[in-house]
Amino acid sequence: MVLKIIFCLVFGYIFGCFSTGYLIGRMKKVDIRKYGSGNIGTTNALRTLGAKAGAVTLLGDAFKAVIPMLLVRFVFFANTDIAQLLSLYTGLGVVLGHNYPAWLKFKGGKGIAATGGVMMAFDLLIVPFALPLFVLIVAVTRYVSLGSLFVAVFFPVWILIRYQGNLHMLILSLVFMVLAFIKHGSNIKRLMNGTENKIGQKVKI
């Protein structure tokens, strides 16, 4: 099982290193790491490059998790009883690749869109609950970071409810949550200080 886990982590990491926001920025001759938050994720792509680029980044970062997870679960290890668990390890590899891409000197995004893709590929039923939660938090507070953190916390809660007794999956979901909080450390400080950027704010190139 250890070798399978290592394979899934590496396989996912390779997909995760596809940095959608950075590549779209380069197509527009803009290095988004030099503007706004300096992040290559969806929120900074939206603020820096506009709504269309933000949407493409969101979809790209989400589906780079969905694709390898579905391959692991339904193709590579379809005949094993741990296929769903292995797909979750693959998703973890994707988020790690997104957050710490080797080809960008390990300076990547914050992993929320990728984590959203992981949650969707892992259990599609989570979408009607997690997505409205995210939208509601952002709509009320206008803080994308706050909505992102709520969704990160919701993942292990979902595992506790829907996969009762599966300690392995619960621990993995907690790892996703911890990664989200680590990458949002500066956002949390700004939220506490009341200086966090709100959705809709633009960055001048």
**Spans with pLDDT under 50 lasting ≥5 residues?**
none
Percent in helix: over 70%
Q: Topology as H/E string?
A: HHHHHHHHHH
| Radius of gyration (Å) | 17 Å
C-alpha geometry: globular
Give the beta-strand count. Answer: 0
In short:
The chain is mainly α and 205 residues long. The chain has helices at 2-16, 20-27, 42-49, 51-76, 83-99, 112-122, 127-141, 144-162, 167-183, 185-193.
Task: Explain what this protein looks like in three dimensions.
The chain is mainly alpha-helical and 205 residues long. It has one domain (2-193). It is 71% helix and 0% strand. The chain has ten helices and no strands. It has helices at 2-16, 20-27, 42-49, 51-76, 83-99, 112-122, 127-141, 144-162, 167-183, 185-193. Helix 7 (127-141) runs antiparallel to helix 8. The chain starts with a helix and ends in a 12-residue tail after the last helix. The model has no long low-confidence stretch (mean pLDDT 91).
